[in-house]
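Q: My labmate handed me this sequence with no annotations at all. I'd like to see what the chain might look like in three dimensions before we decide whether it's worth expressing. Could you predict it?
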Amino acid sequence: MTTEEAPRATGQTRTPIVEMRDIKVAFGGVHAVEDVSVDLHPGEVVGLVGGNGAGKSTLMRSLSGAHPPDSGQILVNGEVREIRSPTIAQSLGIETIYQTLALAENQTAPANMFLGRELMTRWGSLDDGSMEAAARDVMGRLNPHFEGFRQPVHELSGGQRQAVAIARAVHFDAKIMIMDEPTAALGPAETAQVRDLIRQLREEGIGIFLISHDIHDVYDLSDRITVMYKARKVGTVRPENVTKDDVERLIIMGTVPEDVSVEEREALH
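A: Here is what I predict for the chain of 269 residues:
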């Protein structure tokens, strides 16, 4: 097993769509993220895992603009960017799908897709027809069986609600997607729907950081898995090169199996 895996060359550009270098985030005297570097390529899923307090969510909040890093660099398409707010992140094609989804429960799927960015008619009223047409177009690519366009989203299943949140990001031209626990509290059928959505996003060339406590999701969906432990990155591995037990040991103990070479161990620090 190698503990610092490079992305596959096939079908990927050499320049990452996102590169986070030596990111540090502290809250008072507590170091939440300490010298962490990760990258992401178009059409790639990078699983980001670790126990509670490992720093994975804080790292992604730095990318999303919700909590800018104290030091380090973030590069988007090879250019250093100062991401000081979620609005700036969105302008760079970075969208976050939070576990709570941030949906307006009593609004329809099209209304939620355009929430805060509504289309208007020339007379200043909401252009519901155009918003529904756009929603149908995007959802036709992501989930052709979706039919809940005219009902409040609180009446939709968990998988359908995830589809609405994802469709919103795709419509507004997301190139980089942060997905926070996308299958949490979903049943098997709904989890399968969300997994299919993630695979479809990857096929469309969107790069995804997948934060999850579900090792099965991460192992099955990720091209690479980055493990964090006590605010630091333990390493990055490929699912085909490790077992789920290996990944769980990295998460729980911050150590790698005994068969890892001295050189590979040194690369972790």
